Every structure is written in C-alpha cells, then in structure tokens.
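Priority: medium. Attachment 1 of 2:
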C-alpha cells in the first residue's frame, strides 16, 4: 500500500469531537489509530488550562 500525504486543518470543535468519539470506542479501536488518538488528546490538552482539561477528559469518560 502506498503512503499518501494528507493535510486538513481541524477546528478545535472537530478535534474535541474526534477525541470523544475515539475515547468512546477505545476498546475496539484498531491499533493503527492509537497514535492519532494520543496526538489529538495531546493537542486538546495543550490548548486548555489544567482545570479545563480535567473537566473535559473526566466528563468524556
């Protein structure tokens, strides 16, 4: 399979929605998407205060 480059600028709301979706399906998440989930979570975490991040990640469980 050929590797392809893909570029898309996600909005903050899109990233949050993807994080929630991936976390809800984490048990059945294909291994190839684990790095995507971790990077999206880090992106969200880095853009929030500690209080905001705790609230977002705790409420999304």
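Attachment 2 of 2:
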């Amino acid at each position: 399979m050929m590797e392809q480059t893909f570029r898309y600028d996600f909005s903050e709301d899109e990233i949050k929605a993807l994080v929630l979706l991936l976390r809800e399906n984490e048990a059945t998440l294909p291994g190839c998407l684990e790095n995507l989930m971790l990077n999206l979570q880090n992106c969200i975490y880095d853009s929030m205060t500690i209080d905001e991040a705790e609230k977002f990640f705790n409420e999304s469980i």
